[in-house]
Structure formats: structure tokens, C-alpha cells
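Example record used in the benchmark description.
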Amino acid sequence: MINFGYAVYDKHGKLLEEESGIFHKDGIALAKEVADFILKTLDEFMAEDGVPWNFEYAPGETAGPTLAYKDLKFYKALYSGDYSSFKLYRILQDQRKADLRGW
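Model output (C-alpha cells):
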């Protein structure tokens, strides 16, 4: 939020972090507006494709270990020569659409 101009400085030009950025009254209002938009959009995605989405302040906190584990599984599969369980997302989407047509 400091990058958006929500910064407060003391008389010596030092940034007052406890009054700036997300702690600034206008900064928190903008952050809430942005978060509300993101959450509304994610709800629409979930309703459309049936895939649960997650909204985190720092996505790397959970994404890093998860992706590392998946990379290891993928590497082992490639190394063994059997990577048949790994499919492109669009292939999975096409299969899902075909399944839904069969209803």
C-alpha cells in the first residue's frame, strides 16, 4: 500500500511504518476493496469450473512445499519412464466435459 501513496512521514522524512501502507486508513480501505474483488472472482471461478480456489496473503507459504512434492513425483515418474498418470489440464477439462455430456 505504500507504493500506492499511503505513506506517512515524520518531520525528518522517515517513514512511519505503523501509520503507512496497510495501517493507513485509506490503505486498509483499498486493500479490503481489492480482496473483496478477488474473493468474488474466485467464487465465480469455483461455481463455473467446480475447482476449489484459495486466496492467501503469501501464496508461497503453502504452494512451495506442495509444488516441490509434485515436482519430485513427476521427476520420479519421468525417470522410471511411466508418466501416464500426468495429464495436461486441458485434457482433464475435455474429459470432464465429455463426462458431463453423458449425464
